[in-house]
C-alpha cells in the first residue's frame, strides 16, 4: 500500500464555507477513483498554532499500491478537484510513501 499526504495553504480570500466545500470534494474522491483503500480530509484544528504556517486543510489517501497512486493524479475526478483550486491556493505540500507490510 501507499500513503499520499497533502497539506493545503489557501490565500486570504478563503472562507470557512469554501474550505468545507473542498473537504466535501476530497471525500467524494474515494467513491470516484479506483484503488483508494481509505481517504480522510479535514480542516486543521491543531492547537499548535505557532506551527501551522498558514496550512489549513489536510488530506490523507491510502492506495492499494503505487500503480493506483500513479493513476490517481491524471484521473478526471482528481483533475476536476485540482482545477477547482484555481484562484484559491497559495501553496501545497505533498508526500508519498510506501506502507510496509506487517
UniProtKB/TrEMBL annotation:
Transmembrane segments: none
SMART domains to which the protein is assigned, alphabetical: Dabb
Domain of life: Bacteria
Subunit structure of this chain's protein: Homodimer.
UniProt lineage: Bacteria, Bacillati, Bacillota, Bacilli, Bacillales
Protein name in UniProt: Dabb family protein
Segments forming domain Stress-response A/B barrel: 2-97
Organism the protein comes from: Paenibacillus cucumis
Amino acid at each position: 500500500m501507499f500513503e499520499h499526504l497533502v497539506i493545503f495553504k489557501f490565500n486570504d480570500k478563503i472562507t470557512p464555507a469554501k474550505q468545507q466545500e473542498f473537504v466535501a470534494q476530497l471525500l467524494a474522491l474515494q467513491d470516484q477513483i479506483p484503488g483508494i483503500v481509505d481517504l480522510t480530509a479535514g480542516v486543521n484544528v491543531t492547537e499548535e498554532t505557532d506551527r501551522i504556517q498558514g496550512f489549513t486543510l489536510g488530506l490523507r489517501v491510502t492506495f492499494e499500491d503505487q500503480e493506483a497512486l500513479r493513476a490517481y493524479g491524471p484521473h478526471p475526478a482528481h483533475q476536476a478537484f485540482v482545477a477547482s483550486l484555481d484562484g484559491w491556493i497559495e501553496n501545497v505540500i505533498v508526500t508519498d510513501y510506501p506502507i510496509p507490510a506487517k
